[in-house]
Specification:
By secondary structure, this protein is an alpha/beta fold. Helices cover 35% and strands 22% of the residues. It has an 8-stranded antiparallel sheet. β7 and β8 form a beta hairpin. Bound molecules: 5-amino-5-deoxy-1-O-phosphono-D-mannitol. 5-amino-5-deoxy-1-O-phosphono-D-mannitol binds next to α10 and α17.
Length: 593
């Protein structure tokens, strides 16, 4: 999704803003732009380009600047082109704005205030900047911006430059994330912590409906009525995991390989010598509730499905999983005493935020499980648990999925009467992951031979079926092969009609109770021409099984069976020459509903 970076200070805004935008590339974008202050000409230059940041960089003809703002756009209103790229400037040349989010009432405001005006772009943002200019002709710019903010419906993270105040930058936030970082050198502001790393020593995530006036050395935070809001900044500490690709060709491959280390890190964070340490107040609260509702989207929802099985089987608490975008507007009957778990790698997914706002209004207790400690969902839920997976840069989520399952397993275990040694079992999973990853390259040939068609099926039963859903999502999002994850027994009730000569079908078999049934389903598709591949465990393997994994505790099987499927997706995308880390049309953090 869109990214924002702004800087004011003694450093060079040109390089700081460009570097910040590059750090946000992983979020997905289709055009980029920036505005830099030229001290000699006393003028804010605007540069924009369609495509990559490198294209933008090549047209920025200024070497140095004390102040600048930048933006990466992921199109929502209007085509991908230079005109629609940010920043947008008011027709009188006074105000320049970059904006993340969506202004739902922009066309109403446009028709009401600007009848007959010719806009340069199709964006909602240009209406906002014109409105600011309109009111600033009648009142101080701060008042004008706050007045306009109050008129907007939707979501925004916004930076505003007033050419009449070249040493000042204004920022505002509602629903879309925005953080301010500070060092002795100056102030940086970004829509993602990654933009601040390396420039700021301390940071402050902004709350909704705050308005900030930033100068080179300091900033003041206000509410929308102009009342000053106090704040305390936190020290910015980067995770141990680096955000560099290192020896790997792609972030996705690197992140797949990090999974054993992430699992060990989770173990070290959540266990002491023998016991789990999760805040007793959280466990007590959950125990006082009768049903858990898990809310999530995409891969995180697939992890939630495994979490449901673990919470029900280990802790004996009934649990339901909901698609966040559905739950936000179509809340089912919740029953007595519901407790909510929100799962989100980024902690910024707008669909989940919409759910959380409703939950808070209804006074329902909530826990966020996230990879980003400072994220909106982590801050706004009653409790939060961290994934400790380190920055996940590839759009296709891999290590966050296994980290989510591991943390859910630890949570379920800590509320259970179980006596088995989860710490040891998880360590064995990490070892088995490593053992498989040592021979990961064999998956390339298997994938190339198998995935020759435009479609593919993953089949399995129970938790294997839930891993199939995740495996299918991974394959389609980066290889663009139409893939379905299917409950193996359900195939013959209709979908088997799609099986023809050469259709790839991949089976996941990790459960001894259903292994034979799934193998029968595999035979059914084979006899109709399907080309098959089996992922299973040593104890369940048969001659000819292509991927055989080390035996582990069966309730933790998804942590391991998913890994070959991540590699299958990776190699399928590699073979097709796709942009693996930034697949088309997708964004890392989905901050619009
Ligand atoms: O940051 P979140 O976990 O809330 O993101 C949810 C989904 O957008 C995300 O998992 C998406 O499905 C990934 N691209 C999957 O690889």
């Amino acid at each position: 999704m869109c990214g924002i970076v702004g800087y004011l200070g003694e450093g060079n805004a040109r390089s700081i803003v460009l570097e910040g935008l590059k750090r946000l590339e992983y979020r997905g974008y289709d055009s980029a732009g920036m505005s830099l202050y030229d001290e000699t000409e006393q003028y804010f230059n605007v540069y924009k380009e369609k495509g990559r940041i490198q294209a933008l960089e090549s047209i920025v003809d200024m070497e140095r600047s004390p102040m600048g703002i930048g933006h990466t756009r992921w199109a929502t209103h209007g085509k991908v082109n230079r005109e629609n790229a940010h920043p947008h400037r008011s027709a009188d040349g006074r105000f320049t704005v970059v904006h993340n989010g969506v202004i739902d009432n922009y066309s109403k405001l446009r028709d009401l205030y600007f009848d007959g005006h010719t806009f340069q772009s199709e964006t909602d943002t240009e209406v906002v900047v014109e409105l600011i200019a309109h009111y600033a002709s009648k009142m101080p710019s701060q008042d004008a911006i706050r007045k306009v903010l109050k008129m907007l419906h939707g979501s925004y993270a916004m930076l505003v430059i007033d050419a009449l105040e070249p040493g000042t930058l204004y920022a505002a936030k509602y629903k879309s994330p925005l953080l301010i970082g500070k060092s002795d050198q100056g102030i940086i502001i970004g829509s993602d912590m990654m933009a601040l790393v390396g420039t700021a020593d301390n940071y402050l995530p902004l709350d909704d409906e705050t308005f900030v006036r930033i100068t080179r050395k300091n900033f003041t935070q206000y509410d929308l009525d102009g009342e000053v809001l106090p704040y305390t900044m936190s020290k910015l500490e980067m995770d141990d995991f680096t955000s560099e690709k290192g020896e790997f060709d792609h972030y996705m491959l690197k992140e797949i390989h990090e999974q054993p280390a992430v699992l060990r890190r989770i173990i070290s964070k959540y266990f002491n010598e023998t016991h789990v340490h999760i805040d007793e107040r959280l466990l007590k609260t959950i125990r006082q509730h009768e049903r858990i509702h898990i809310l999530a989207a995409g891969t995180s929802m697939h992890a939630g499905m495994i979490g449901k099985e673990l919470l029900e089987s280990l802790a004996g608490i009934p649990c339901e999983v909901h698609i966040a975008s559905e739950f936000a507007y179509q809340q089912p009957l919740l029953g007595d005493k519901p407790f909510f778990i929100l799962i989100s790698q980024s902690g910024e997914t707008a669909d989940l935020r919409a759910c959380l706002l409703n939950l808070k209004k209804a006074n329902h207790p909530s826990l966020t499980i996230t990879n980003v400690r400072t994220s909106t969902l982590a801050r706004e839920a009653d409790h939060s648990l961290e994934l400790h997976a380190g920055p996940e840069i590839a759009v296709a989520s891999t290590k966050a999925y296994t980290a989510q399952i591991a943390v859910l397993a630890i949570l379920a275990y800590s509320m259970s009467e179980q006596t088995f040694d989860l710490k040891r079992e998880l360590s064995e999973v990490a070892q088995a992951m490593e053992h498989f990853l040592d021979r990961y390259e064999s998956v390339e040939t298997l994938t190339t031979n198998l995935l020759t068609k435009r479609n593919c099926f993953y089949i399995g039963r129970g938790s294997d079926y839930h891993v199939c859903l995740e495996a299918a999502l991974k394959l389609k999002e980066i290889s663009y092969i139409q893939t379905e994850g299917f409950a193996a027994g359900e195939l013959k009730h209709g979908t088997i009609a799609l099986i023809e000569e050469g259709t790839p079908v991949i089976a996941i078999i990790s459960n001894d109770k259903t292994a034979e049934n799934t193998r029968s389903n595999l035979s059914e598709v084979k006899s109709r021409g399907a080309h098959t591949l089996t992922i299973t465990f040593e104890s369940l393997s048969e001659n000819g099984d292509e991927i055989v994994l080390d035996n582990i505790n069966p309730s933790l099987a998804p942590l391991l069976t998913v890994i070959p499927t991540q590699l299958i997706a990776y190699y399928a995308a590699l073979k097709r020459g796709h942009d693996i880390d930034k697949p088309r049309n997708l964004a890392k953090s989905v901050t619009v509903e």
